[in-house]
Amino acid sequence: MASSDKQWRIDFAKRLKGFRLQFQAYKPRGENSDHDHCAACWAKFAEFEGSDILHEGYATCDDYPRGARYEWVCQTCFDDLKDEMQWSTAAK
User: Where are the domains of the chain?
Assistant: First the structure.
């Protein structure tokens, strides 16, 4: 069982369990989106500058049902949750 400091993030990110993720610079999915959030902790990813804005992280790959770069995971959550979430990394 995950510790309580991890469990809430696992609950938020459970839809990503077992998927491959690729570390990359953040790029929005389309012209109607300027940011995304970490699927686990809700940290913000964007290209613009700002307090607490992340510019790179782990994104879903083409094999994710909603496609590449649809979901993002920050470095901290990836490191903390990768074993419980059975995440693997894809080569660039």
Answer: 4-89
